[in-house]
Amino acid sequence: MNRIAALFEKLRQEKRTALMPYLCMGYPERDSALDLVPALVRGGADLIELGVPYSDPLADGATIQAASQRALENGMSLARCLEQVAALRAGTPHAAGIDVPLLLMGYYNPLLQMGLDAFVERAHAAGVDGLIVPDLPPEEADELQEALRAREIDLVYLLAPTSDEPRIHQVAARGSGFLYLVSLVGVTGARDRLPPELEAFIARVRAASELPLAVGFGIGTPAQARRVAAAADGVIVGSALIRAIGSAHAAGCDAVQAAEAFVASLRAGIDST
Prior knowledge:
The protein is an alpha/beta fold. It is about 50% helix and about 15% strand.
């Protein structure tokens, strides 16, 4: 049982919902994740998605696009992301080694450029537990999925509210770790409100799969996290956290402290369900 499966089994027994924040690696500075990831764990994160910056992040809204561009300008790359995952597992000057599940979320082109087999071997050695590739449909994922499966690394697929029943069953049959449910039609980014049909969408997928269900896109407040936690197994928050980090950094404040406080507020919201 890898870290992701062990986490969701533990939370199931405790009747708790996973808090799963997203960081763009290399933002706001190239090595920021080495301090931000331990802060997120201190704030109550159960699993962390580490975004691999890419020049054309088609699934992402303005906040993550801007963070990704800044990270690329800082010299961040897929290879450096893997080096930082390994450093987080080993421990930093300010924190013990990170033991929560770590997933990379990135686009397919950088993986192809590195070579799929080489990437999987390096990801395994670094301590990556899972991978999310928004622009890789299941129909084209066989080669990567087989390589990941051999190293017990989960390949997590996304489902949208527009996914019909055959598509839900197809993705549910292929996915591992958990299923990533996109809460709304559109790109990433916090919204003022979540769609009223969200719970019905979660229920449709729940009927088709025994995998844990995590919901992302559009979640940015403790109240929204609490609503999602009442129906799903995991709550994913990205853009709102990136904004909190970026605002603190731009103001000359402690971005690490801001990240920890923001995640702690989400944790409090989830735990109040």
